[in-house]
Design goal:
Layout (H helix, E strand, L loop, with lengths): L4 E3 L5 E3 L2 H9 L5 H13 L7 H15 L1 H7 L1 H6 L6 H13 L3 E9 L4 E10 L2 E8 L7 E2 L2 H17 L8 E9 L2 E2 L1 H10 L2 E3 L9 H8 L12 H9 L5 H6 L2 H5 L4 H15 L2
Parallel strand pairs: 5-7, 6-8, 7-9
Antiparallel strand pairs: 1-2, 3-4, 4-5
Helix pairs in contact: 1-2, 2-3, 3-4, 7-8
């Protein structure tokens, strides 16, 4: 098994890691007996050149059959991709995560710079300080944000900052620029972000405070993690600004608009409420 080469979404070949598979299943909260059972089945079905997508699909199907609630948490990464294709729901998703972290946020702002105006995805305020955030959403797995992205965002941030901090009407100091992506950054991008003091947030960065860590910690799962809602129903809810599972709890009448039966509605809301507990 140590010699099994698997193919990532990017096309890169890597050695299969049993520990990574176990870790991803463990993060869902599934019990050890269930995890061991899934790992034993997946391990027996491995072959040279199997894709990470095939491994994920098999593990997800087994987890869904055994413990559907944990399967919803397991599909978190895929669920964020399903927020597309425009990327706008992802901006609202990032904005909401920051709200639950104590920020006051607005989306799609036009801010004046020294040189030109800039359309900013998210503007966040906390403790008399302001942060501007650019969201880079990718609808396909395997794509990474290279160094050109933080280079470009940093130049915009510096232009806005130079104007913002000379305008007394703003009432706060612009102190930080962020780049948030649902995928990963290349090593060059991470190095530049650190050097330029630009905060980079991705699926797995920074360690222990990445996008997936924040979602798990705050219970802020996107509505697309649901294993009970259809793709049509999810897109309908997203079009009504229901981005988080938490949102649907207060606006469950949308399920009535969709014609969801009372029995199925009860199952959906039970799943959603479990996911929303932090």
């Amino acid at each position: 098994m140590e010699d099994i080469q698997i193919i990532k979404a990017s096309g890169e070949k890597v050695k299969f890691s049993l520990n990574k598979l176990r870790g991803s299943l463990k993060r869902t909260g599934a019990n050890n007996a269930t995890i061991d059972q899934i790992i034993n089945i997946v391990r027996d079905e491995l072959y040279q050149g199997i894709t990470t997508k095939e491994i994920y699909n098999r593990a997800f199907a087994l987890l869904k059959k055994s413990q559907p609630f944990f399967a919803s948490k397991y599909k978190l990464k895929k669920a964020i991709y399903e927020l597309g294709p425009t990327g706008f729901p992802f901006e609202r998703f990032v904005s909401t995560i920051l709200k639950y972290d104590g920020y006051e946020t607005t989306t799609n702002r036009i801010l004046q710079g020294i040189c030109v105006t800039h359309e900013i995805d998210v503007v966040a305020h906390k403790n008399n300080e302001t942060t501007i955030i650019e969201c880079k959403f990718h609808g396909e797995q395997g794509l990474k944000c290279n160094v050109k992205v933080p280079l470009y965002i940093n130049s915009r941030y510096q232009d806005v900052k130079a104007h913002w901090n000379t305008d007394k009407n703003n009432g706060t100091i612009l102190t930080q620029g962020w780049v948030v992506t649902n995928t990963r950054f290349t090593e060059d991008a991470l190095q530049f972000g650190k050097c330029a003091n630009l905060y980079l947030l991705s699926w797995d960065h920074p360690k222990n405070n990445s996008l997936k860590d924040r979602i798990d910690r705050l219970g802020l799962y996107p509505i697309t993690v649901s294993t009970l809602l259809t793709n049509h129903e999810k897109q309908f809810l997203l079009s009504r600004d229901i981005v988080l599972c938490k949102d649907l709890i207060d606006d469950s009448f949308y399920l009535d608009h969709l014609g969801v039966s009372e029995s199925r509605k009860e199952k959906v809301l039970t799943e959603i409420k479990k996911l929303s507990r932090n």
